[in-house]
Description:
By secondary structure, the protein is an alpha+beta fold. 22% of the residues lie in helices and 26% in strands. The protein has two helices and eight strands; from the N terminus they run H-E-E-E-H-E-E-E-E-E. It has helices at 14-35, 91-102, and strands spanning 63-65, 70-76, 86-90, 106-112, 117-121, 129-133, 138-144, 149-150. Strand 4 and strand 5 form a beta hairpin. The two termini are 24 Å apart. The mean pLDDT is 88.
Amino acid sequence: MYRPPQKSRFDFNYYKWLEGRKTEDEMRPHLEKFFDCKFHRQDDGLEIDPNNPPLEVFDKLDFRNEEKKIIVEVKGRKCPSHQYRDTIITTSKIDEALMEMENGWDVYYLFKFRNKCKLIKQVKNHNWGIKITGTFRIPHYLIPVCEMDEFNISHKI
């Protein structure tokens, strides 16, 4: 399938969004079992027009449960968990998480690596480094993989 290049970091990349959505959909039942609650996404049930996506697809953090005040951001990785010391996440996601924490939410990040899944809870005073990187050279936090907990969903991922 032909995938046109993304010209700007502000363009909606439908193909990248679909890939991320697939990872989120795969992980949702495991998250619901682990946290013992149902999660919803802003764009659940919406038809997505790649040329005119609704604002809901741009929600910064993936899953929410209002009852327990839990938010989970799911990130798919194409490498195994041991390949790099750190994994990256955009600073805007961390900034959003910190704002949500001010309102009483607990925020977690689930990283689905090729060989396993790892989970980490956002803390107010983290000491993660920052690096300007990625396709569009934007700031990312470097989260040490060794600080994450194993998230065992099965022996197959």
